Amino acid sequence: MAKVPEGYHVVRRHIRRNPRRRGKKLSGWMIAGLIAGVWLWSQLFGFGQASTPHTPQAPSPSVSASAGR
What is the secondary structure of the chain as a DSSP string? Predict the structure, then answer.
């Protein structure tokens, strides 16, 4: 058999590349989970609602109430 180059190995008479070491990358599922988590957080608690004070509006009189009484 022929000499196997560095970075390769032999599997069933075929020369294959050695698997690469991967750094700590985020998988597609992890990214999807993070996006879903942010979306859920925004649905439950909202973004910026705590920083803007809620000013209640004055109640307007109903149309059916008469002014003469």
Answer: -PPPPTTEEEETTEEEEPPPPP-SPPPHHHHHHHHHHHHHHHHHT-SSTTTSPP-PPPPPPPTTS-S--
CA-based radius of gyration for the chain: 33
Taking only the tens place, the pLDDT of each residue in 25-38 is: 778 889 999 999 99
pTM of the shown model: 0.37
- Determine the Cα–Cα distance for residues 5 and 9; give it in Å rounded to an integer: 8
How far is the C-alpha of 10 from the C-alpha of 12, rounded, in Å? Answer: 7
Q: Which two structure tokens, joined as six digits, stand for 17?
A: 């590349």
